[in-house]
Design a protein that fits this description.
Shape of chain A: globular
CATH architecture of the largest domain in chain B: 2-Layer Sandwich
CATH class of the largest domain in chain B: Alpha Beta
Radius of gyration of chain A: 17 Å
Largest sheet of chain B: 6 strands, mixed
Helix content of chain B: 25-40%
CATH superfamily of the largest domain in chain B: Sulfite Reductase Hemoprotein, domain 1
Largest interface: A-B, 38 and 44 residues
Number of helices of chain A: 5
Number of strands of chain B: 20
Number of helices of chain B: 19
Strand content of chain A: 15-25%
Oligomer: heterodimer
CATH topology of chain A: TIM Barrel
Number of strands of chain A: 5
Order of helices and strands of chain A: EEHEHEHEHH
Distance between the termini of chain A: 34 Å
Structural class of chain B: alpha+beta
Strand order of the largest sheet of chain A: 1-5-4-3-2
Largest sheet of chain A: 5 strands, parallel
Number of domains of chain A: 1
Helix content of chain A: 25-40%
Shape of chain B: globular
Distance between the termini of chain B: 66 Å
CATH class of chain A: Alpha Beta
Radius of gyration of chain B: 23 Å
């Protein structure tokens, strides 16, 4: 995941290829209307870091609508939610000004694994272990 | 009991380290209070009236002797305020008392050095300083305990019937499902910032002893005609400002679809639950306002999970069996201790009648230790008691105990032949009061003595009632009565589901109490889940015991032979009781001047 300081984002994409989506938007309608066509980056919004709607939006965009471009977290983006964001399908995040990004990396290194599947690894732990066992048995 | 794998152990340890890092960053000013808030809530740390409150998860209530020993150590070594803090707190409470002459009741002093069993089968401490939190969480992690998601807008501790796997009327042991769901919900990346808290309860027996109608998701285990296991799914129950009973959204969900379906429900909630008003943010509000539209949305999302996502969280037979293997009968051996108890003695007979229940296994019993006694707050266990409990569980119950949602402790593996010796040992600890299910087996939240959310104190009401009703003849004559009290509308004391409910309200900066009648938790005795009805304008604390007395007098006057309080109330209606309650008001102070 690309973690960006708010003052370090340039204009790397033409406007037409960026789609900001409000966190109360109806994704199904948006997708059906063709709004995702040609979009390279979707920007999802955290009005407050405690408003978790964008996590579901990211999950659905990746899993249901197979969006393969950049999903960027904007708004009240802090360090301690970055791992949840990555696991939900975000590929970039713009930190609020003043947040020190140096604490970010160790968040990603903290947990050896998680119980439930996510966007990166859809299989829950028990399915991953079962498949690993099956592979060992074949070896 | 579930035994942690290496992965499980590493997970709670890593979580404890993450929390330590977050506290240290906060101490260095790298995290603001506001930014720390959900992080510490999701590890179980509230800021309360005078000190932090630590809520330690006891998943579906199951606790081992080694865990009880650690809880004892936490109580003894960490649950202690600085003398200045305690003095300040006590002085403030005394001032509150003094500001309400004639209205208040004698208040027990603030206590420390104990754990409190909650209605959600967690264990709370009220005095551990936040700077000690990382140390405490590391100690707890060493015995496979944590505070993960015991607070915050996430999926909370999952509860079951305290008799799962041992009940005579058991259909399916729900503990494996509760454990699988607990793991699935832990640090769920999509569902950690829900509109509000989310609570799931399982019930695996014919009788609903888990109050599933009062939960965001309630799951009743059952078997279809072919013997296949599944769940009746209820959604949208809850207490608080808008008490509602869950609606059935699925009559039969196959067991292996449990996580997929819960995912659908929580996703719809995360997307559409209200975030504009804290009092309207639970899923029950969404269910009520959208009705069939809600059910349709859940079913649509569930179908998408199955058909488009490939249903990755379908529970495999292998995983079910891996987890279920932990919930078998443990190695059992009778304690065979000698005892001096006269088996025909009245106290012992009463204890057998109220605190001891049958068991699935022949020759075994379940014993509820009563944490409702004079001189103690409901559900409180001091360090010495916790330590002794660990030994008691080891000696008499294969090292296992279960917290109940009525704030007591159940011993699940007791030999019938050990009952006299267990009774003696429990008596020595003050835990053999034969009052389970009776009037003095009250549920009470900690209330305004500790909780900054509270409008009023609850503990002095509980103390006054416990002291007034010490005569066991009277208590037995009155029979089973559920009194539930909450210090505020957050309803941690489950007042809505009490036959008699007591709710603290704030009026003019003073403490007042609303009394409700006729609530039910869904158990066989109480009937289908329903919220109680208010009897009239609120009462002062001083009036509450007299009001309760008036209600009980009315019951005694109107009841048919052998009739229970809740049944008499329903038969004659609330009016005679309301009249009696309102008639028990004290004369206003001005009236006394005439």
């Amino acid at each position: 995941m690309n973690i960006l300081a708010s003052d370090a984002i340039g204009n790397d994409l033409p406007e037409g290829q960026i789609l900001p989506i409000a966190n109360d938007a109806e994704l199904a309608d948006l997708v059906a209307s063709g709004a995702l066509a040609g979009v390279q980056r979707v920007e999802l919004h955290f009005p407050k870091f405690t408003d978790g709607r964008a996590y579901t939006q990211a999950v659905l965009l990746r899993r249901r609508y197979k969006f393969a471009g950049d999903i960027r977290a904007t708004g009240d983006v802090l360090i301690d939610q970055l791992v949840h964001m990555q696991r939900s399908g975000f590929s970039s995040a713009v930190l609020v000004p003043g947040v020190d990004a140096s604490a970010a990396q160790r968040q990603f290194d903290r947990f050896a694994g998680f119980y439930q599947g996510d966007v990166l690894e859809p299989r829950p732990l028990f399915a991953r272990l079962a498949q690993a066992d099956a592979v060992l048995e074949l070896a | 009991m579930y035994q942690y794998t290496a992965f499980d152990q590493a997970f709670v340890r890593q979580r404890a380290e993450q929390f330590r890092d977050q506290i240290e960053r906060w101490q260095r000013g790298e995290l603001s209070e506001e930014q720390l808030l959900p992080l510490r809530l999701q590890n179980g740390w509230y800021i309360q009236r005078y000190a932090p409150m630590a809520r330690i998860a006891v998943p579906y209530g199951e606790v081992s002797s080694s865990q009880l020993r650690m809880l004892a150590r936490i109580a003894r070594e960490y649950d202690r305020p600085d003398p200045e803090l305690l003095a300040h707190a006590q002085a403030t409470q005394d001032a509150l008392q003094a500001a309400q002459p004639g209205l208040a009741l004698k208040a027990p002093p603030l206590r420390y050095g104990y754990g409190h069993f909650t209605t959600r089968t967690n264990c709370q401490f009220n005095w551990i300083p936040l700077v000690k939190a990382p140390e405490v969480m590391a100690l707890l992690a060493s015995v496979h305990m944590h505070g993960i998601q015991t607070s915050g807008n996430d999926i909370r501790n999952i509860t079951c019937d305290a008799w799962e796997g041992i009940a005579e009327d058991g259909i399916v042991d729900c503990r494996p499902f509760a454990e699988i769901t607990r793991q699935w919900s832990s640090l769920h990346p999509e569902f950690s910032y829900l509109p509000r808290k989310f609570k799931i309860a399982f019930n695996g027996a014919e009788e609903d002893r888990a109050a599933i109608g009062w939960y965001d998701i309630g799951l009743q285990a059952l078997k279809d005609d072919a013997g296949a296991v599944g769940f009746r799914v209820l959604v949208g129950g809850g207490m608080g400002r808008t008490p509602l009973i869950g609606a059935v959204v699925r009559e039969f969900l196959p067991w292996d679809q449990l996580l997929n379906y819960i995912e659908a429900i929580v996703r719809v909630y995360n997307s559409y639950g209200r975030r504009d008003n804290k009092w309207k943010a639970r899923i029950k509000i969404l269910v009520k306002s959208e009705g069939q539209g809600f059910i349709d949305a859940v079913e649509k999302e569930y179908q998408a999970i199955v058909q488009q996502d490939g249903a990755p969280h379908t529970i495999t037979t292998a995983e079910f069996e891996r987890v279920a293997r932990h919930f078998v009968v443990p190695p059992l051996a009778p304690a065979n201790r000698p005892s001096q108890v006269d088996p025909q003695g009245q106290l012992y007979q009463r204890w057998l009648r109220q605190n001891v229940r049958g068991h699935k296994l022949a020759g075994m019993k379940t014993v509820t230790l009563s944490f409702k006694r004079v001189g103690f707050n409901p559900g409180d266990a001091d360090g010495d008691t916790l330590q002794a409990l660990a030994q008691l569980a080891e000696d008499f119950s294969a090292g296992e105990a279960r917290l109940t949602h009525e704030q007591n402790l159940l011993l699940p593996w007791v030999f019938a032949s050990d009952l006299p010796a267990l009774y003696e040992a429990a008596r020595k600890l003050g835990l053999a009061q034969p009052n389970i299910g009776l009037l003095t087996d009250m549920i009470s939240c900690p209330g305004g003595d500790f909780c900054s959310l509270a409008n009023a104190r609850s503990l002095h009401i509980a103390a006054a009632l416990t002291e007034r009703y010490q005569d066991l003849d009277e208590v037995f004559d009155l029979g089973p009565i559920d009194i539930h009290m909450s210090g505020c509308i957050n309803s941690c004391g489950h007042h809505h589901s009490g036959h008699i409910g007591i709710l603290g309200v704030d009026k003019d900066g003073k403490e007042w109490y609303q009394i409700t009648l006729g609530g039910a938790d869904g158990s066989r005795l109480s009937g289908p889940a329903i919220g109680g009805k208010v009897v009239g304008p609120s009462f002062s604390a001083a009036e509450v015991p007299d009001v309760i007395e008036a209600l009980l007098d009315t019951f005694r006057a109107l009841r048919q032979p052998g009739e229970l309080f809740i049944d008499a109330l329903r038969r004659v209606g609330h009016d005679p009781f309301k009249q009696a309650a309102n008639g028990a008001r004290h004369p206003k102070p001005e009236a006394l001047l005439i």
